[in-house]
Amino acid sequence: MSSGGVSAVMSCVLAWLLPGAGHFYLGKRRRAAVFFSVVLATFLLGILNGGHAYLADRQQPLTYLGTLANIAVGPLEFLSRRATYHRLVYALPADENSPEAQVLLTAMRDKVKVVTDEYGTTYLLTAGLMNMLLILDAFDIAVGRKS
């Protein structure tokens, strides 16, 4: 699945690793710069507004979608995890009464107390969702469906 000597898989991996990098790889330099700037600005607005990263919780299935949207922004997402939970963690422990679960829930509650948390969290989710679309766009360009 490639067009003109480029790999569709490589363009997708690069697009996930760094927003815009897939387009840069495909020779779309100006688009790459704009996409990088937009996703980075949206992500930083999320961090600066006290947004929190989602944790997958078996009790709340929609948290899996939020967690996926967070992960879609790529390694940048580690910053939001560190800002929210002070470590890399992606799911609540099965036992919500465990000390680990209580520490994570307290960290999340502390973020939610910030007045701008909802705005910040929305920006973080939006950055991830935009990057998902950019990954798909890079794929379409790489396979020749789009120029």
What is the general shape?
A: elongated
The class by helix and strand makeup works out as mainly alpha
Let me know the number of strands. 0
Number of domains: 1
How does this structure look, described?
With 147 residues, the protein is mainly α. The chain has one domain. 64% of the residues lie in helices and 0% in strands. It is built from seven helices and no strands. It starts with 7 loop residues before the first helix and ends in a 5-residue tail after the last helix. The mean pLDDT is 94.
Keywords:
147 residues; mainly alpha; 0% strand
Quick structural gist:
This protein is mainly alpha-helical and 147 residues long. The protein has helices spanning 8-17, 21-25, 29-48, 62-71, 77-85, 99-112, 117-142.
What secondary-structure arrangement, pairings included, does this model have?
Layout: H1 8-17, H2 21-25, H3 29-48, H4 62-71, H5 77-85, H6 99-112, H7 117-142
